[in-house]
């Protein structure tokens, strides 16, 4: 069953990371900003163009989505879950622990959706994360908006924020 929860997004980023990381958030270079994400194997952050209140939907494999709307961004990245049931989705000031099932390699699919209202929560953006167990996950910007640059090579080397 999908997890759905509100999240206050600070510094225009929402992150997916292993719960045991000492420094879970990533530094952002100019190319990370223009491509829309900053990546390490156990932590990936996605840029949110504006707004602070988001509704997060987390799907596993082929679960059906409940948040509506057409995505304006779709980004695929690998993610390695190193402990069972230990994924955190959050921002600097707010986070939620999510059960994903088992450790291993995953394809994370990030979708940025339009805002709306969900059970009395008004939100600026919907954000859908889909976790698919996959050993050969890829990096791909499947859909980009006008703030993103898809013409340059992706920067796949982020450092932990200090």
Structure description:
With 162 residues, the chain is mainly beta. It has one domain (3-143): Competence, DNA-entry nuclease inhibitor, ComJ (Substrate Binding Domain Of DNAk, Chain A, domain 1, Sandwich), CATH 2.60.34. 4% of the residues lie in helices and 48% in strands. The protein has one helix and eleven strands, in the order ββαβββββββββ. It has one helix at 30-35; strands at 3-8, 13-18, 37-40, 43-47, 53-60, 73-81, 87-90, 95-98, 104-118, 121-133, 140-143. Strand 7 and strand 8 (95-98) form a beta hairpin. The radius of gyration is 14 Å and the shape is globular. The mean pLDDT is 93.
Q: Walk across the major sheet and give the strand order.
A: 1-5-10-9-6-11
CATH H-level superfamily: Competence, DNA-entry nuclease inhibitor, ComJ
At CATH level 3, the topology is: Substrate Binding Domain Of DNAk, Chain A, domain 1
The number of helical elements comes to 1
What's the CATH class label?
Mainly Beta
Number of DSSP E strands: 11
Shape: globular
In angstroms, what separates the terminal alpha carbons?
35 Å
Instruction: Please summarize the sheet with the most strands.
Output: 6 strands, mixed
Evaluate the radius of gyration. Answer: 14 Å
Helix/strand order:
EEHEEEEEEEEE
Low-confidence stretches: none
CATH architecture: Sandwich
Task: Indicate the proportion of strand residues.
Answer: over 45%
The total domain count is 1
Q: SS-based structural class?
A: mainly beta
């Amino acid at each position: 069953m999908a997890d759905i929860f509100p999240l206050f997004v600070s510094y225009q980023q929402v992150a997916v990371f292993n719960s045991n990381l000492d420094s879970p958030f990533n530094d952002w270079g100019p190319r990370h900003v223009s491509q829309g994400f900053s990546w390490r194997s156990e932590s990936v952050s996605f840029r949110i163009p504006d707004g602070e209140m988001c509704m997060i939907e987390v799907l596993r494999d082929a679960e059906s989505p409940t948040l509506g709307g057409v995505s304006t961004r779709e980004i695929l990245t690998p993610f390695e879950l190193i402990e069972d049931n230990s994924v955190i989705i959050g921002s600097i000031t707010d986070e939620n622990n999510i059960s994903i099932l088992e450790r291993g390699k995953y394809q994370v699919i990030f979708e940025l959706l339009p805002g709306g209202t969900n059970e009395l929560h008004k939100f600026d953006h919907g954000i859908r994360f889909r976790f698919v167990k996959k050993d050969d996950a890829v990096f791909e910007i499947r859909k980009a908006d006008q703030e993103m640059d898809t013409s340059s090579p992706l920067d796949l080397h982020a450092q932990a924020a200090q």
